[in-house]
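Spend some time on this chain, C-alpha cells included, and walk me through the fold:

. . .
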Amino acid sequence: MNVGVSWRGGNRPEIKRRKSTRLQQWSELLSTSNVTFVNLQYGLDSEERTLIDSAESARLRHWRHPDPLTEFDDFASLVGALDLVISVSNTTAHLAGALGVPVWVLLPDIPDWRWQLERSDSAWYASARLFRQQTAGDWKGVLRDVGAELRGLGVLDLRPPNG
C-alpha cells in the first residue's frame, strides 16, 4: 500500500503552530509494516531533510517531487497515484479530497471552519475521514488512532464502492 504523508500546514505562525505536527511524532506510524510512505510535505526545513535522509526514516520515500505551489498538475498526478493520503489540513489534504483519493485529515481540537466541529467525515470531500485532537496540542493520540486504523485495513478497504 502506498501512503502519502504531510505533517505541516499554514503560512501564518499562529495557525501553523496549531495545525502542524513534527515529523519526529510520526515515527511509530511510519514503522507500519506493508506500507510504503511517500513524502508529500513541501517546503522541508533542514531538520526535516536530515531526518528523512537518516536510516530511522528509511520507510519514508523522498525524491524531488513537484512543488504543489508551482507544479500543481504534476503534484496532483503524484497524489492521484497513491492508495491513501494522511495529512494535516493543508493544500495536500484538499487536493486529495478533490481528486477522490482517500485522505485522512489530522485536525486540531478547534479546526478551520471547513472541517466543522464534530463530524468524522467531510461535507466537501466524500473520500475524507477526519481524525481530531481530543486535547489541544495532543497529536500523539491522533497519530495513535490513525496508526491503529492503518494497521487494520488493506487497500480494498479504502476506496468507496463506486471509487
About this structure: The helical segments are 13-19, 27-30, 46-53, 72-80, 91-99, 139-151.
